[in-house]
What does this fold into?
Amino acid sequence: MEDWISKVGWSIAILGTMFGLWVCVSLGVDPTNGSLTNSEYGEDHPLKVLIGIITILVSLFAGSVLIGLATLMDFARKMMQENKRNKSA
It folds into this structure.
């Protein structure tokens, strides 16, 4: 279970970083109706770098929390196994 949670954490961190970089590069505003589009069809969004950086930070935080949780669960499982061995000996 710990391995699965850790893999999900790494996936969130990596995919979120990739998505944040994509947002930094391609987010734009369509000047005719104000909707968000790719920047090649309209003007660059004035906050695209900020939105991209926030996306990257949030995904890294969420991924780190899951990786840390998996590490703590693994440590707790090993401690419980060690305690069982010490009590039976």
Remarks:
- The mean pLDDT is 86.
- The helical segments are 2-26, 48-88.
- The beta strands are 27-29, 36-38, 43-44.
- The radius of gyration is 21 Å.
